[in-house]
User: Fold this.
Amino acid sequence: MSRVMFPGSFDPIHYGHIDIARRAAKLFDQVIVAVYDKPLKSLLFMPEERIALAQQAMSQFPNVSVVGYSGLTVSFAKEIGVDAIVRGLRVFSDFEYEFRMALANNRLDKSIDTLALITSEENTFLSSSTVKEIASYGGDVSSMVPDYVNEALKRKYRNLSK
Ligand code: ADP
Assistant:
């Protein structure tokens, strides 16, 4: 049985992530969306909020599950026994970052391979930071994220402005 892990911060999950998970779920028997606990980024949502939104998004795919993790991605990949790490690629700058990460992870653990799926054309521009930037100014992100993520963003920015 093929098992892969799709790690990320998912702050928050958007249609670009969901598309990668959907396509990975067609290629592999089991996909584990793994939500970083504390990446070196300033995050809007707490880990449990990011996990809950990702769970809601993935509930439509029977062979996709969501877990949170902390520490090294390769260590977690080994712990849960996946065959490979799946990542998404949008623009050229992603490639450089993903290339370096894949090589570093492979140096840490030769048994873990990284596979990259190219974004679907309509999601090329989509990133969690773009979604957050637009939402923080009250812009419409309904074409970029599911309704429950849109609501969570509105709630978050309302609370932050209090
Ligand atoms: P990270 O902090 O690890 O980059 P993200 O949540 O930003 O976490 O992204 C997780 C993965 O999803 C990364 O491989 C990223 O390249 C990919 N990804 C993000 N947005 C898109 C998109 N619009 N299309 C395809 N892949 C994407």
Remarks:
- Residues 8-10, 16-17, 20, 39, 87-88, 90, 94, 119, 123, 126-128 surround adenosine-5'-diphosphate (CB under 6 Å).
- The helical segments are 15-27, 47-58, 73-79, 92-108, 128-136, 147-160.
- The chain has a mean pLDDT of 94.
